Amino acid sequence: MGSSPAAAAAASAAVVALAVANRVLYKLALVPLKAYPFFLAQLTTFGYVAVYFSILYARYRAGVVTWDMLELPKRRLPSGCWRPSESLRACPLEVAFFTRRRMV
After folding, report:
1. Could you tell me which of 4, 33, 36, 40 has the fewest CB atoms within 10 Å of its CB?
2. What is the pTM of this model?
3. Residue among 59, 75, 55 nearest 67 (CA)
4. Residue 41 gets which letter from DSSP?
5. Is residue 44 part of a domain?
């Protein structure tokens, strides 16, 4: 895709459509697997890991990502320090587990 406003709008619409489809399919999968929400969450997570690493590998092979970009950070965070984004990433899944327990 180019960097035109139309391309950016199309990419944004595609991301929103895929996100909505992802949530709907997750909810549909919970119906037959209602006794196994943790298994479904783990399966989804491993699916994401496989997709993201395959994209990263393709970008690495294309030269978009270099080895220097893949190295670990030189400076580590102090002990006991956490990033707010890490907590925010876990919130939707925890809310889903909590509400699912309340529904049963």
Report:
1. 4
2. 0.52
3. 59
4. H
5. yes
